[in-house]
Design a protein that fits this description.
Elements (H helix, E strand, L loop, with lengths): L2 H16 L7 H21 L2 E2 L8 E2 L3 H7 L2 H32 L4 H15 L2 H12 L7 H6 L9 H28 L4 H10 L3 H27 L4 H7 L4 E6 L4 E3 L4 H11 L3 H24 L6 H21 L6 H9 L8 H26 L6 H14 L12 H25 L17 H8 L2 H32 L3 H16 L2 H13 L6 H11 L1 H14 L2 H9 L4 H12 L1 H17 L2 H6 L8 H9 L9 H26 L13
Antiparallel strand pairs: 1-2, 3-4
Length: about 675
């Protein structure tokens, strides 16, 4: 047992030993120090050093690593590509999700069935569903079921546009269920009187959507910008589907080879696999982290009220153009944008009309020079700062567009929902069919099916890999129950500054973390001697699911009448005892939902095990499935074994979900004084 694991277990036991309130927050404080703050500080410190594989001690080099990155043209190209891809992904995702939510918000049987079918895509781990998409689209070197059915010639290894588009479509498909459910939740906050008013006024689809968007935009706009921040760090879906993609013409650079899907996360992973200078790797991590902060700040500022929001957004837009311009190469056409965005806040709120007219003209100018630059120079002409500033300013100022209205035919609206659900069913059915196919078959023949694939993957140690994933899940349960739940209780009742700071770090960390933090996280874990352990993966899974756990469980705890706590104190219970003996039994339905969420997250863990696990006997289910599918340019891909392993591996998820349902909807809990709908 490592020293850190022993210390962590002691921290978990502190609330039981001391029965003091403050001890209920110490495990979470230790967790975020190791998984969030530690990697950031590690990267900052070592980014100023040369620290090779064979060096015992790092050597201070000042800004040498940062200057080296400034000369990396391929890395700059990757930033531009990432900005474009993230912008398009979120725009398409939220547009479709909003339209779906409008259609499915009514709690009819058809709507519930449609949401269930759509959510299957989220429930199945992404390393299975994305690999299934790759099998369907790419198959063996372009010999695929899709090309066979449509008589097309799609090849993600040769055509840059096809690789970029495929990664965009699959990533939108993966994120669509969650965004749709969240937007439905937002719409359910709108009074039904609004629907009645629209019916009386005879509002069409477009007018109704515009009105409902206005009712939830204070929630939807920050969510969209948060999604934009997350999209800039995308790795798993892109890496599994297309790798780095076909090389772009301008992507042949000395330091970084950039392909059509060489987004920042993929580039960092490649560098982590090839570079042997930990100091230079840390500098790359700091650079990517800095770009992520710009997008996160935009999302946070969008939640403020006018005029504070306008001032912050404009200042951030001006700063983004300045900083990214200095990194990417100065363009004089950006100077009017920087100056105008910097000066406009001084016109608020005295010159409202002049402010809006000026903003409109500057945005039109910015969009025009971006389009001209992109048409003239391709990907190299993209201005990443504009893909941040233009949408953020438009959403902040919230221009009103001319009132237009139209209504789609009912059959077309039903057909659109069906068309969005069909890909989920097709991919799942195709993965299942692959599990019965012969070697090198992408279209299983009904007369030549075999069960041999199942016995082959079981004899290949698949059950051991599934057991490892179950251990990760159990570790995650333990950490979440004994560390995160007590902190959720403290969060629900405490107004101390320290608790607010810890919560802010957790929320910011959930948006900030990505491949750029996983690299220094590896070195922090290595220092603590917990690399190559399942506990390390469970620790990160618990931190990733911590924001949802804190707000959902904490929200339930705060809804319990305070008289129950006072009665418990009269009975001699301490506050930790009250939480464990009173609140915990009452919150079982909520905890059941949280454990389901943690289970899916633990089962979907792919990136972290890919980086920190070296021992074959610790390989989880995700890496075993990946070994059958491999990267897109693998010499041999066993799609039949991938299908069989995927089917077997999803069974424990379904079993757990079935068990969790009985917990969530337990009727016995009604006798405890709390009603659950």
């Amino acid at each position: 047992m490592s020293v850190f694991l022993f210390v962590f277990l002691v921290f978990l036991a502190l609330p039981f030993l001391s029965r003091k309130n403050w001890t209920m927050s110490t495990p979470v404080l230790l967790m975020i120090s190791v998984t969030l703050l530690g990697p950031v500080l590690w990267a900052l410190v070592f980014s100023f050093t040369r620290y090779g594989v064979y060096q015992d001690m790092p050597a201070f080099t000042g800004l040498e690593n940062y200057l080296s990155i400034l000369r990396d043209k391929g890395f700059k190209l990757s930033l531009k590509l990432t900005s474009l891809w993230a912008f398009l992904r979120v725009l398409i995702e939220l547009s479709i999700a909003f339209a779906l939510a409008l259609r499915l918000r009514n709690s009819s049987r058809a709507s519930r069935l449609a949401m269930l079918l759509l959510a299957i895509g989220w429930f199945i781990p992404s390393f299975i569903s994305v690999s299934g998409w790759r099998s369907f689209i790419q198959g063996y070197g372009g010999y695929s079921l899709l090309n066979t059915l449509l008589n097309t010639n799609i090849d993600l290894t040769l055509n840059a546009f096809q690789a970029f588009t495929a990664s965009l479509v699959v990533s939108v498909w993966l994120s669509l269920p969650l965004s749709t459910m969240i937007i439905i939740g937002m719409l359910n906050r709108v009074s039904r009187e609004v629907d009645d008013m629209m019916k009386l006024d005879g509002a069409g689809d477009l007018a109704g959507a515009s009105l409902l968007f206005g009712e939830i935009r204070y929630l939807l706009i920050p969510y969209g910008l948060f999604q934009l921040a997350r999209a800039t760090k995308e790795f798993t879906s892109v890496f599994l589907l297309s790798g780095s993609g076909p090389l772009l013409p301008e992507g042949f650079t000395p330091q970084t080879l950039t392909g059509a899907t060489s987004f920042l996360g993929v580039v960092l992973f490649r560098k982590f696999s090839s570079l042997k200078d930990f100091g230079l790797l840390s500098a790359y991590s700091v650079y990517v982290g800095g770009f992520a902060v710009l997008w996160i700040l935009a999302a946070l500022f969008s939640r403020n009220e006018v005029p504070k929001r306008h001032r912050q957004i404009l200042a951030l837009s001006s700063l983004s153009h300045l900083l990214i311009g200095l990194f990417d190469g100065w363009r004089w056409v950006s100077l009017p944008i920087i100056i105008t965005y910097a000066l406009l806040p001084f016109s608020i709120p005295r010159f409202k009309k002049a402010f809006r007219v000026t903003i409109t003209l500057v945005i039109l100018y910015e969009v025009s020079i971006n389009l001209y630059s992109f048409v003239s120079n391709g990907v190299s002409g993209i201005m990443p700062a504009s893909l941040l500033s233009v949408p953020v300013i438009l959403l902040s100022v919230r221009h009103r567009f001319p009132p237009l209205d139209f209504t789609l035919p009912e059959w077309l609206k039903k057909m659109s929902v069906v068309l969005i659900i069909i890909p989920t069913l097709v991919v799942i059915a195709y993965i299942f069919a692959l599990s019965f196919s012969r070697d090198s078959e992408i279209l299983p023949s009904l007369g030549d099916l075999t069960l041999a694939n199942y016995s082959r993957v079981i004899s290949d140690g698949l059950l051991k890999n599934i057991a490892n994933t179950i251990l990760i899940t159990l570790w995650s349960f333990t950490i979440s129950i004994f560390a995160v739940l007590p902190f959720s209780y403290i969060f629900s009742k405490s107004k101390r500054v320290l608790i607010k700071i810890i919560t802010a770090v957790i929320l910011f960390g959930s948006l900030y973390t990505g491949m750029h933090t996983l690299l220094p996280l590896y070195f922090v874990f290595d220092f603590l001697k917990i690399t190559d352990t399942l506990f390390a993966i469970a620790l990160v899974v618990s931190v990733q699911t911590m924001p949802v756990t804190i707000f959902v469980v904490g929200g339930f705890f705060s809804s319990v009448p305070r008289e129950l706590l006072e009665a418990s104190k009269i009975e001699g219970l301490s506050e930790p005892g009250y939480m464990w003996r009173v609140l915990l039994p009452l919150s079982l339905p909520v905890i059941g939902g949280i454990l389901t969420y943690i289970t899916v997250s633990a089962w979907s863990a792919f990136t972290l095990p890919l980086i920190i696990l070296k021992s074959g006997n610790l390989q989880p289910f995700s890496l075993k499935v990946f070994s059958y599918a491999g990267e897109i340019r693998s010499y041999y891909t066993s799609w039949n074994l991938f299908g069989a392993a995927s089917v077997i591996g999803v069974i424990p998820l379904l079993v757990f979900f079935r068990a969790a349902r009985s917990l969530i909807f337990s009727s016995d809990l009604r006798d405890m004084g709390v009603e659950y709908d």
